[in-house]
Amino acid sequence: xxxxxxxxxxxxxxxxxxxxxxxxxxxxxxxxxxxxxxxxxxxxxxxxxxxxxxxxxxxxxxxxxxxxxxxxxxxxxxxxxxxxxxxxxxxxxxxxxxxxxxxxxxxxxxxxxxxxxxxxxxxxxxxxxxxxxxxxxxxxxxxxxxxxxxxxxxxxxxxxxxxxxxxxxxxxxxxxxxxxxxxxxxxxxxxxxxxxxxxxxxxxxxxxxxxxxxxxxxxxxxxxxxxxxxxxxxxxxxxxxxxxxxxxxxxxxxxxxxxxxxxxxxxxxxxxxxxx
Length: 276
Ligand SMILES: Nc1ncnc2c1ncn2[C@@H]1O[C@H](COP(=O)(O)OP(=O)(O)O)[C@@H](O)[C@H]1O
Ligand SMILES: Cc1ncsc1CCOP(=O)(O)O
Ligand SMILES: [Mg+2]
Hints:
CATH superfamily: Ribokinase
Bound molecules: adenosine-5'-diphosphate, 4-methyl-5-hydroxyethylthiazole phosphate, magnesium ion
CATH architecture: 3-Layer(aba) Sandwich
Radius of gyration: 17 Å
CATH class: Alpha Beta
Number of helices: 11
Structural class: alpha/beta
CATH topology: UDP-N-acetylmuramoyl-L-alanine:D-glutamate ligase
Helix content: 40-55%
Strand content: 15-25%
C-alpha cells in the first residue's frame, strides 16, 4: 500500500460554503436511508436522521434487505452487533446499492477485535462502499495495523491515521471518513479536516454510528462523497458544539444535539472550521 499524505495546510471559505450547501440539498431531498445498524445505535441513528432532515428505515432481514435497497436513496451497513443473518442482509443491501449506483456507507465497528468482524468487513468491501466511516482505531485495523482499539473505542487519534486513511481510500477507491477530536475525510488525493464539537461527544454511545447514517443521507444528496461526508460531520460538529454550550453532561448533550440538528441553519454549518 502506498502512503500519500494529502496537503492539509490551507483553509478556504469555499470549502465551508460547499459543506453548508450539502446540508441544504440533503434537507430538500429528504433522502430515504436504509440503516442496517447495531442494536445499540438504532434509536439514536433513527432520531438523529429525522432531526437532521432525512428519512430513516431500519430494514435488515435478508428476506427484504435487497428489495428495500432498490428503493432507498442510500444504505448503511454497520457491523457493531453482527450475526450471520444480519450479515446476509447487509451483504445483499450493499450489493444492490452498488449495482444500482446508489451510495452505501460501511461502519466497521470494532473490526480489529474479532476474526468474524474482520472477515465480514472484507466481504462487505467487495461491494465497493462509497464511504467508510470509522474511528482512528478502526481505520488502522482496516489498513492492517492492529492494537489501536479497545473494543468499539479508538486508542489512536486522527493525526495518527491521516497517511493510512489516504492510502486506504486510494486503494479501495472510496472516501474514508475518520472521526475523533477532529474529523478527517479523504479520497486519497483530496482531504478535508473539520474542527470543533464538544469533548464529551465520545460519552454518547453510538454517536459514531449515527454519524455514519447521516453521512449516507448527505451523500445521497451530493455528487461528491468527499463533500457529502464532510457535510454530515460538519452538521454534527455544529450541532454538538451548540448543544454543549448548555448541556450538563452526556444525557442532556444527547437530547440537545437532536434539538439543535432540527433547527440548524446552513449558515451555522458554514461557520464550522473546515480545512483542506
Ligand atoms: N474528543 C472529541 N471532541 C469533539 N468531538 C468528538 C471527540 N471525539 C469524537 N467526537 C465526535 O463524535 C462523533 C463520533 O465520533 P467517534 O467517537 O470517533 O466515533 P465512534 O463512536 O465510532 O468511535 C463524531 O462526530 C466526532 O467528531
Ligand atoms: C457499545 C457497542 N457495542 C457494540 S456496537 C456498540 C455501539 C458503538 O457505537 P459507536 O461506534 O458509535 O461508539
Ligand atoms: Mg463506531
